[in-house]
Amino acid sequence: MRSPVELVDAFRTQGLKVTPQRQLLFRLLHDNTQHPTADALFAQASAQMPGISLRTVYQTLSDLTAMGELQQVSFDTGPAHFDPNVADHHHAVCDVCGAIIDVYVDGADQLAIDGLDGFRPASASIVFHGSCAACAGT
Amino acid sequence: MRSPVELVDAFRTQGLKVTPQRQLLFRLLHDNTQHPTADALFAQASAQMPGISLRTVYQTLSDLTAMGELQQVSFDTGPAHFDPNVADHHHAVCDVCGAIIDVYVDGADQLAIDGLDGFRPASASIVFHGSCAACAGT
DNA sequence: TGTCAGTTCGCAACCGATGCGAATAAGGTG
DNA sequence: CACCTTATTCGCATCGGTTGCGAACTGACA
């Protein structure tokens, strides 16, 4: 995701308006490696801007996702998480504390796949489950 | 997933009862490669047993999943799909028609992963997106 | 056949997410 | 700087998927 100042330009260029709510979310998301949910962002945003609506958070998140600035990732059936890292990468989920970390997998594109039977893969997403450094103990 | 007759034994052994509803679902799921949702199974079950409750379908699916006879898989934020194939495998999803097919990936366990930073992976799940043989055209 | 624990099933509730519409505010123009 | 247009905010209602609850029911064993 681009920086808050770049996003201001990008939004205006598209005829979209730059509101305080949006700017706050730009800041909360920039360089955020937490993979927050809409609800988590709403909580953080509310602390700095009481009265902001959850609806607005959802709205801005989907705007940013549509613009390619954000990647929406979902695990299992829980709420969606948002990732400002839009590079080609994958995720590791800690089953203990729920932490999500970005991982880069070499050779993900040349995996030997059996059973494709004519299926033409366009993309692959890999999710590792396990325990993170903090939860694995020492 | 084991065969309907084996499941009858397994259920009784665990003190669970074998009802007509459950037997019907055993049959609908056995050798099913469609990865149906609870709703889809409910529709099929209703055709053969009018009056069966969606609640019962959910109940039995979660029983079977708890017993390890079924694997619950979810893609994006949509409804959960149930897979009687509990072997170690992955999935390919057709973005056109929504078909889900089982695939087997060699070397999935020795992928070169960067960024783990102490994370200990216990399992990996890979989802391919693309177009299936029927939808890819020829 | 009787007894009892496990089941079924409808309804309400829940969660994450989205549609709608009135009030509000951004931002270009005169 | 005031104005006007259009986008945005935000609360509320709604929706889809799923689960909790509890009364009535029914397998399964004695």
Radius of gyration of chain A: 17 Å
General shape of chain A: globular
Question: What percent strand of chain A?
Answer: 15-25%
Spatially, the strands of the biggest sheet of chain A line up as 4-3-6
CATH level-two architecture of the largest domain in chain A: Orthogonal Bundle
Oligomeric state of shown chains: homodimer
Structural domains of chain A: how many: 2
Low-confidence stretches of chain A: none
Tell me the total number of β-strands of chain A.
6
Please estimate the helix content of chain A: 25-40%
Summarize the structure.
With 138 residues, chain A is α+β, with helices and mostly antiparallel strands.
Give an account of the 3D structure.
The structure is a homodimer of 138-residue chains. In chain A, α2 (20-29) crosses α3 and α3 crosses α4 (54-66). Chain A is an alpha+beta fold and 138 residues long. In chain A, strands 4-3-6 form a three-stranded mixed β-sheet, with no helix packed on it. In chain A, strands 1-2 form a two-stranded antiparallel sheet. Chain A is globular. Chain A folds into two domains: 4-83, Winged helix-like DNA-binding domain superfamily/Winged helix DNA-binding domain (Arc Repressor Mutant, subunit A), CATH 1.10.10.10; 90-130, no CATH class. The model of chain A has no long low-confidence stretch (mean pLDDT 95). Helix content of chain A is 32%, strand content 24%. At the A-B interface, β4, β5 and β6 of A face β4, β5 and β6 of B. The first copy, chain A, binds a DNA duplex (30 and 30 nucleotides) through α4.
